[in-house]
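Form 7-S
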Amino acid sequence: MIYLTKKQLGVSMIELMVSLFIFSVGLLGFATLQTRSLQEGFDSGQRSVALWRTQELSDRIRANNDQLDTYMAAVNNDAICNATPTRCADYWDGGAVAGAACTATQMATFDVWDVLCNGEDATEDVLIDSDISLACDDRDLTDALACSSGSNLTLDACWTSRAASSDNQLEIVQGSAALPTCTEPDAPGYLFESYSLEFVP
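Output:
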């Protein structure tokens, strides 16, 4: 008696679909990992900007430390970027323009504007929904100054994390699609990055 055996030729549709499914899941996982990596890299870059700019501003305050009240008012002024103050440094405006001969008060206002608002890489533009504030622990309550020379200053910066702002569950967590700002008392802390610098000018 002769038995004939059939050999399987090619790949069945079920095997093909399973292979395609496994490949798709792996590709989706890789794409998600790549996206998260880009977001984390962006957040790391933002933190570097925050450290660099707060350090730069603190150095300028140290160099002009008899104007602490002016620095306090300028940093805590939400409208500081709305108007260009007297420019106290040379700049380029289609041609070289010499900076004005500024008073110490004008220099303080210009310093804050220059660090927070000036140029495409300005702090306000680079840090997403950022808030920067300057607080003073006044060491001399007997004078008329809100922040006396030698007082301890705290420069706080906070901004929205790119990774958090891209979270799929953000709308569920907040109950709305709008991001809260980092200064809101009930804002979820995990949505934000922050940096604080204490110094005595």
